[in-house]
Amino acid sequence: MSEKAIGVFDSGLGGLTAVKELIKVLPQENIIYFGDTARVPYGTRSNDTIRHYAMEDAGFLLSKGVKLIIAACGTVSSVATELYECLPVPFTGVVLPTATAAVKATRNGKIGIIGTSATVKSGSYKKEILRQNDRITVFQQDCPLFVPLVENGFISEDDEIVRLVVERYLRDMKAEGIDTLILGCTHFPIIAGAISNYLGKNVRLINSGSETALYAANILGSKGLLNTSNHIGSCSYYVSDTVESFCKTAGIFLGQDIDGSVEQYQISKRNKGITE
Prior knowledge:
Strand order of the largest sheet: 4-3-1-2-9-10
Number of strands: 10
Shape: globular
CATH topology of the largest domain: Rossmann fold
Radius of gyration: 18 Å
Order of helices and strands: EHEHEHHEHEHHEHHEHEHEHEH
């Protein structure tokens, strides 16, 4: 069981930031990633649609025999919470580990949250933060333009378009004096440089991919599922749309070339997901 892969899914490319962190934290582990690139973005969909897609994504990973599933997607983690109860293997989203890290990090009790429209509307991060410490003041902002910016390669902190969009979304939080900001979508760490430049070095950015990787390592360790092999693990990638467009942009997220390790899997035609 311990040599089985960790399964990671996301609506598209953003979850690759979590994969990058998993490789750092758990280099011996095998990883299977599924990006539902044919149906991205999830953040603008209805809650019922998001839950349906998440069930299908998880079902695909289960068909690969994974030992742990990670929803490396703030939207799914916020909306499809029933995955915690219905999967036959351990599961985690990004909300709990990220919110926990933010509560530990804040010094003045003012935490900002940015994410997709669905994530912010769900209030999932805010609820978890206040559950842990109800004296914290939480500020939320949906940032729907961040995902298309990243996926189209607009990521430089010196890019005028990126700087203007960051300022437009974050000016109110800056004025409120937050000292901690949750990057509540796994795309957002790609433009962390521009976000940090605008907010200033005194604002701590919480990377959901990094915190979730550490949390996943703790889950595997507590259940005796860590791969103790001395070999470096392998990564396999599946997408529901064209491989070429995925490979072209994936290097931005992973910092390495993945040509030759990506397959297309049209999930809506070949997999019915899991029983809800």
